[in-house]
Amino acid sequence: MAEPRTTALDPRYSDPAASPTSWEETERILVAAELFWLTTVRADGRPHVTPLVGAWADGTAYFHTGAGEQKSRNLAANRNVVLTTGCNTWDRGVAARITDEAGLARLAPLWAPKWDGRWRLTARDGGFADADGHGLSQVYAVTATKVFAHAKGDPFGATTHTF
Fold first, then answer.
1. Which of 14, 25, 77, 79 is 20–30 Å from 139 (CA)?
2. Average pLDDT taken over every residue of the chain
């Protein structure tokens, strides 16, 4: 992903003295985030929100899930998602499944530093397996269309990065 097409401070939700959060700062927070919240839509239109461990690399957010899990079933019908980090930064975009072994092998190490190093993944059979080779999960990439960054404190500010 290139630099945002636009970065703008939303005056409705920002202190008059605030300035936009830079893309560099926003991306630093996304890389450091351990926990993300994924919002998908069920077939009947009801929302589904769940926490997950994700990773940010090359301007894209990545997550994985088992084929039988609710989020996977939801994504099969509707790929529109909202991905929120626990550090007050949001990603909104479309999820696309990643199945190529080379891409998966490059991404798997991104989970290693998450949650005390518990996430040791390997690329296998078009997805991720845990360190013991069990629990095959599907891998998704979310290419952001908008990223919201909210600065807390004084001055507070709401920045929108649009791609």
1. 25
2. 88
- Total domains in the chain come to 1
Question: pLDDT for 127-163, tens place per residue?
Answer: 999 888 778 999 999 888 888 888 888 888 989 988 8
Average pLDDT for residues 114-124, to the nearest whole number?
83
CA-to-CA distance for 85 and 81, rounded, in angstroms?
13
Range of the domain at 10: 6-162
Spatial distance between the Cα atoms of 80 and 71, rounded to a whole number of angstroms: 11
Residue 116: left (phi > 0), alpha (psi -120 to 50), or beta?
left
Say how many CA atoms lie within 13 Å of 31 toward its Cβ: 9
102 within some domain: yes
Contacts of 60 (CB under 8 A, 6+ apart): 1, 141, 142, 143, 144
Domain annotation covers residue 35: yes
Q: Do residues 88 and 137 touch, judged by C-beta distance below 8 A? A: no
pLDDT of residue 88 exceeding 50: no
Q: Where are the alpha helices (DSSP H) in 36-107?
A: 70-77, 101-107
Please check whether residue 1 lies inside any domain of the structure: no
Is residue 137 one of the residues assigned to a domain? yes
pTM here is 0.77
